[in-house]
Amino acid sequence: MKIRITLFFTALLFISFSCKNDNSKEQIAEKPEIRQWRPEDTRSLNGLKVQRGLIKNTEGATSGYILFEPTSSTFTYLMDKEGNVVHEWKTELNSMISYLQPNGHLIRLERSTVTPTFAAGGMAGTIKEYDWDGNILWKFELANEKELLHHDIEILPNGNILAISYEAISQEKAIAAGRNPNNLTKSGLWADKIIEIKPTKPSGGEIVWEWHTWDHLVQDFDSTKENFGKVEENIRKIDINIPSSYDDPEIQTEEHIAQSKKMGGQPANLNVDNQHSELTHANAVSYNPSLDQIVISFKYFNEIYIIDHSTTTEEAKSSVGGNWGHGGDLLYRWGKPQNYRQGDESDHFLDMQHDVKFIPNGYPGDGDLLVFNNNIRNPNNNLPALGAAFSKLKSPDVAISIGDFGDYSAVYEFKPPTSEAGKYVIPEIGSIGPKKPSWDYIAPDKYSFYSPFVSGAQRLKNGNTLITTGVSGRMFEVTPEKDIVWEYWNPYNFHYKLPDGSPAQPLGPFFYALFRSTHLEADFPAFDGKDLKPISPQPEPFVFKMPPPPPAKDSIN
Q1: Residues 6+ apart with CB under 8 A from 139
Q2: Which helix (DSSP H) or strand (DSSP E) does residue 255 occupy?
Q3: How far apart are CA 506 and CA 513, in angstroms?
Q4: pLDDT along the chain (557 residues), means of 10
Q5: Contact predicate 432/475, CB 8 Å
Q6: d(CA 243, CA 302)
Q7: Rounded-to-integer distance, Cα 325 and Cα 209, Å
Q8: Which residues is 517 bridged to in the sheet?
Q9: Distance CA 308, CA 322 (A)
Q10: Which of 110, 115, 121 is nearest to 76 (CA)?
């Protein structure tokens, strides 16, 4: 895994360098190239030459609107299914995700400019609430040397907000907890926690509940340290030494990091001491009000976890209490049984996944879980051959061809097995079910649907599913039978930079990337009395201009 990730991002850096992306006006053409849409265009990972905008809108498409944020901008757009922006929020900070409320208010998770400790994808630090006209109604910040909001939030029925936050763990504390010192850098670890914020308007909030990964660990590495026990006998706890994609502190040298920053692929404060500090990289949080449960996606562990929100904060630190009797220990986990020493590779379903959600009550599949599985590995992938191929790449459109990598993505719907009493079935021996998803979406040719990071999926009321292929900025709606009935490619890039000149969300050459998008029904209460006509002028698309080919060498007579 480590070699594969390194090869992938090394290739992206090479590609970005070959593009000479200096955000200059030379990259913007007056008009995009007009040509016929080609199905093979979907095989371009970054989609630099893909036709952008609305591609397909059939009678089978669900009526309504799409809410999304280009990762390189400070805008949030509301778009109709014809591809017209009908409303926009102009803000000061960059955002990866926002949630429109029934009263017309927009709650955004925004990138703070203050990140003294943390250096990773998905950094935020600020939550703001805006009214329909873009006026700020509330602001909450958590961005300091010890904590940082990141990736995702969830609005609870009572108006409180669940948020993911890092908490910095020193090297000494990590070793005392049983972490293998060989998998530690000087900065220690950044563990994830979930906090519930009760807003106090117009500014601030009270943290009324919290759950910490750090309170629910097990390890069999060192019997003299905390949390020692048999991993396979403590399935409701998390092994602090689960192999992570970024455990090896020698993957990136100081020179490599510096070069990566020049290409826009790394945060400005990344260094050799903190580049592998993330323990789990939580990237999604979702709430089930009927069960009072929370599901979290831990990307680096290739698993999703369900925890009990009915606990008190004190109970959430322990293994007792709450409606389900397990305190803050895991109620359920799925994705990679090897993490608790069960199963084999055939049971390994998730790899670098994003955007896990409970399907809402009343929707087809309600109560099931929906997740975007980013990186299904091709066992025939020839890494040495790929490395040799990368060294010869000249064109970014060819360079980031999905077929070159051989991996692919999927959207999975799955139903956690439960007893008659509604408790999740956790076997004493063997893998936690289900053995396979109940529904999935994989491209017919597999390899034309691939996003190695970001991305998401949302079940709609009629049973269709909205999918966001994040790295290319592609949004499309599929039926339960997996037919594409609507498709749109984000055309916007605004090159937003932080005050220090670094990108707010380092994505290298993925100029059109989206974290995810959200479908809103045409009768959503926020739209009552609103004139949702296309705004004028429409936002200006960004058109990438391919760099000229290198001059041909003189022929030898």
Answers
A1: 126, 127, 128, 129, 202, 203, 204
A2: helix 254-262
A3: 10
A4: 43 39 35 40 75 96 97 95 98 95 98 85 95 98 96 98 97 97 90 98 97 98 98 97 62 74 75 85 97 97 97 98 98 97 92 97 97 86 46 42 71 97 94 96 91 96 97 96 98 88 80 96 97 97 77 53
A5: no
A6: 10
A7: 17
A8: 68
A9: 7
A10: 110
DSSP codes joined into one string, 8-58: HHHHHHHHHHHHT----GGGB-SSPPP----GGGGGBSS-TTS--EEEEE-
Helix (H) / strand (E) element for 405: namely: helix 402-405
Q: Compute the distance between CA of residue 325 and CA of residue 421 in angstroms, rounded to an integer.
A: 13
pLDDT at 387: 44
Q: Alpha-carbon distance 8 to 11, whole Å?
A: 5
Q: pLDDT value at position 401?
A: 53
pTM for the whole structure? 0.89
Helices (H), 102-253: 171-176
Q: Is there a contact between 336 and 320 (Cβ–Cβ < 8 Å)?
A: no
Closest CA to 88 of 490, 538, 541: 538
Locate tokens 């950094």: which residue?
Answer: 123
Phi-psi map region of 202: left, alpha, beta (phi>0 left; psi -120 to 50 alpha): alpha
- CA distances from residue 233 to 229, 332, 429, 537 in whole angstroms, order as listed: 8, 15, 9, 61
Q: Which two tokens stand for residue 418?
A: 């439960």
Count of beta carbons in the 10 Å neighbourhood of residue 494: 16
Using CA atoms, how far apart are residues 540 and 55, in angstroms rounded to an integer? 18
Supply 502's token pair.
């670094």
How does DSSP classify residue 87?
Answer: E
Number of H helices, E strands in the chain: 7, 27
Q: Which domains does the chain have, with CATH numbers?
A: 2-527 (2.130.10)
